[in-house]
């Protein structure tokens, strides 16, 4: 494939950047609005008969259960993304997420329809999980496969920015509801539904934007030659299972700490354990999302300058340094301490999230790349983020101390760092179907293959 075809025009690059950022922002707004509500209202409205503590655990469990279905979403989207194209999967996953989120906004509570309420809530959360499992792979490949070799790091950070933006939007809308539009009991009665219902407007906008994007040039060339793999998932696990394991562990190191904030645990800890004002905590989370946004953007640029691997290692070092101080800050310094804790967490998260898309894209061969990045990301999310809030709550309940929670976060961070050291930096490797042999070898420090291309070569 020619570099011109792979890179596309500057206009196309801007359109791709806009489409991937907007699309993933909407997708993750939907996902995070649920996680935010899980810690604030779902325990009371859908699981209250179980008792206060069990209800909260059940509410956090529904956050995690959806992650168990993300691999299924990744399998389906990965298969069809490698067979029929990246763009079709982007549109399909966006619509699925929007429909599920909007329906949650009109769902009756336990007091209205009994046990059917939490069952229906869980089913809709599962649909969110299926969508989230398939969306990410398509978005990152559209961005990375359109980009010049020396700009893949920053191009890959575009869809990543949708995660902090989605969290920012979810936290901001919820803070607006609890603080101004429907404070107190009004939020429990009807205010919590508004952020879910807003999803229908966002989906229309996202659908129009994503439909306007051209297909990935890598897949376009594969399709033109008729070289699609019939069952890409089988090829992936037969030949590259070890890459799936290592790359998933890299994301475990990021996701476990990340879902302390996006999964609602830290917010709930600050509100219920430290008695901080709900709206003030949500505003702090919104500020943290802004920091996360800029650190993710910075990480994309750093990945093109010092490499994906080095950027990850810096981020994991920062994460390891903050996992114990963050709870002390919240406990001893109140709201200012929460701000500092969230800023520290968000900076480390950005550095270990921004380069993820470009690195994942560069370690899997073109013909199975959608399956590879989607399934790896989904598996990493299951073991890194799925039940992190629930596990942390159980550790806190069992020990009465946050030290066990911090130890859990540190273990996950060190696992991510160890997996990072096992993978090679592949910056600049050709991504097209003509280079499948090179793409299929040498991705780990233990496997044979030519040394990774330098950034100077990529230029």
From TrEMBL:
InterPro entries per the UniProt record, alphabetical: MFS, MFS_dom, MFS_trans_sf, Sugar_transporter_CS
Region (Disordered): 433-459
Organism: Microbacterium istanbulense
Keywords: Cell membrane, Membrane, Transmembrane, Transmembrane helix, Transport
Official protein name in the record: MFS transporter
Pfam families with a match to the protein in the record: MFS_1 (PF07690)
Membrane association type: Multi-pass membrane protein
Location in or out of the cell: Cell membrane
